[in-house]
């Protein structure tokens, strides 16, 4: 049996009247991350020592989905049983697997064929009720009228009978008469008029379809987020707990500006030092960088007719910025002088006494706390998005630990719209570029 890391789809139909749709469906499915088995293409797996028909059936065993397209032509026959087309045989083989829960069948009938079947059934009932006796028509005569050849459907008796089989019409009638009779499975029959109709059915019937590129980005990012979070969280009494909470109490007591001092409990100051001394800079960003560069998570603004940075892509940018900040601060604590300062805090043990300490001296530790917290919160939010498809922006820590300076910093930074307006203004005035 052929195995694949991607879900596999078998496309079954007569090839003559579905060549264009089979080719389009194969292309769309492969672009969506599926592997497709379609016998007319060179990439169809073949066991050259086996009969081609047997090889097709064997290929169904390795598939999780079976797409059945029914049109106006019945197609080639198999030797046995009588009046069985190759498409019918493939469907029956797949249906046995579907009953075992190993395969999902998606059946589609060309709408013109379905309409012809419904109209002819209604016509046959009308003839039988009102004209059969008057004109001496036999049941065979009525059946011949019902199944006559036309431009819409070539082999009506075979095609109409096959549609009834796929819809499990006989089993449905039996279940309606006997409540104890089992209901059939995989008997939905969808009609289609164009390729868009087919895609709409596949989107609703298959597992969540997404481009292989996006699927790879999400899978890699999921692994990387897990690796980083395992570095930033520990287990305490069976509960996961971020390491930054060691510094959270001291962070709550930190106040004022760079020239001020903060009154912090001794025990909280010691825990702050422990956090700073053990903080890890071994955070990965390879998959995060790929996701940002790919553009897969940008938001399309229909009003502006361009892609923009929405909440999801902004989260990737914010996480990259937070990790960069964490690494930068951690590298600043690698010096012997900085480590010596942290070791001084280990002497503080009191849970009630407070220490007056310069904000400049512990300012970087506060930045490390805030950016580590942002890294954890953004990573968890993105991990939830990967698992559920829904993203909620978490509450993030400020860009500076000095509260009074936060509004000043934000107001001093121009917005993107202001920068664009400035750039356009520069171009319109034809002035020399800024030095």
Looking at CATH, which topology of the largest domain would you report? Rossmann fold
The CATH C-level name of the largest domain is Alpha Beta
Measured as a percent range, the helix fraction is 40-55%
Report mean pLDDT, rounded to a whole number: 82
Principal-axes geometry comes out as elongated
Query: Which residues sit in consecutive blocks of at least 5 with pLDDT less than 50?
Result: 46-50
The CATH architecture of the largest domain can be given as 3-Layer(aba) Sandwich
Radius of gyration: 34 Å
Count of domain modules = 2
Topology pattern, helix = H, strand = E: EHEHEHEHHHHHEHHEEHEHHEEHHEHHH
Total helical segments: 18
Please, what is the oligomeric state? single chain
> How big a fraction of the residues is strand?
5-15%
Largest β sheet strand count, sense and barrel closure: 5 strands, parallel
Account of the 3D structure:
The chain has 435 residues and is an alpha/beta fold. It folds into 2 domains: 8-205, Rossmann fold, CATH 3.40.50; 212-397, no CATH class. It is 54% helix and 11% strand. It is built from 18 helices and 11 strands. The strands form 4 sheets. The protein has a 5-stranded parallel β-sheet with strand order 2-1-3-4-5, with helices on both faces. Strand 3, helix 3 (86-99) and strand 4 form a beta-alpha-beta unit. Helix 10 crosses helix 16. It is elongated and about 110 Å long.
């Amino acid at each position: 049996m052929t195995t694949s890391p991607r879900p596999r789809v078998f496309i079954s139909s007569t090839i003559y009247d579905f060549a264009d749709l089979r080719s389009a469906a194969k292309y769309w499915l492969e672009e969506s991350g599926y592997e497709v088995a379609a016998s007319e293409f060179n990439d169809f797996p073949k066991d050259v020592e086996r009969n081609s028909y047997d090889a097709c059936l064997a290929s169904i065993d390795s598939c999780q989905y079976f797409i059945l397209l029914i049109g106006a032509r019945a197609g080639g026959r198999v030797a046995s049983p009588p009046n069985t087309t190759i498409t019918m045989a493939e469907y029956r083989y797949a249906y046995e697997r579907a009953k075992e829960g190993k395969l999902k069948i998606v059946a589609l009938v060309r709408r013109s064929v379905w309409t012809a079947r419904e109209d002819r059934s209604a016509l046959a009932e009308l003839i039988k009720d009102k004209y059969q006796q008057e004109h001496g028509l036999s049941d065979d005569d009525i059946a011949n009228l019902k199944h006559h050849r036309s431009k819409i459907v070539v082999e009506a008796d075979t095609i109409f009978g096959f549609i009834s089989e796929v819809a499990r019409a006989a089993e449905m009638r039996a279940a309606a008469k006997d409540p104890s009779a089992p209901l059939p499975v995989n008997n939905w029959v969808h009609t289609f008029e164009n390729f868009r109709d087919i895609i709409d059915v596949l989107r609703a019937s298959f597992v969540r379809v997404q481009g292989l590129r996006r699927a790879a980005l999400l899978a890699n990012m999921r692994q990387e987020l897990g690796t980083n979070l395992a570095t930033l969280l520990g287990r305490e009494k069976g509960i996961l707990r971020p390491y930054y909470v060691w510094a959270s109490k001291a962070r709550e007591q930190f106040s004022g500006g760079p020239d001020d001092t903060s009154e912090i409990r001794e025990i909280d100051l010691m825990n702050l030092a422990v956090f700073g001394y053990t903080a890890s800079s071994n955070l990965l960003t390879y998959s995060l960088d790929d996701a940002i560069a790919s553009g897969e998570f940008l938001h399309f603004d229909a009003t502006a007719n361009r892609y923009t940075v929405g909440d999801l892509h902004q989260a990737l940018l914010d996480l990259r910025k937070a990790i960069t900040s964490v690494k930068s601060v951690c590298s600043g604590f690698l010096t012997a002088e900085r480590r010596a300062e942290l070791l001084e805090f280990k002497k503080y043990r009191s849970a009630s006494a407070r220490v007056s300490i310069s904000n400049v001296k512990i300012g970087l530790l506060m930045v490390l706390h805030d950016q580590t917290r942002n890294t954890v919160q953004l990573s968890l939010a993105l991990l939830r998005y990967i698992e559920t498809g829904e993203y909620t922006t978490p509450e993030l820590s400020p860009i500076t630990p000095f509260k009074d300076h936060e509004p000043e910093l934000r107001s001093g930074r121009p917005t993107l719209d202001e920068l664009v307006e400035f750039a356009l203004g520069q171009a319109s005035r034809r002035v020399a570029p800024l030095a």
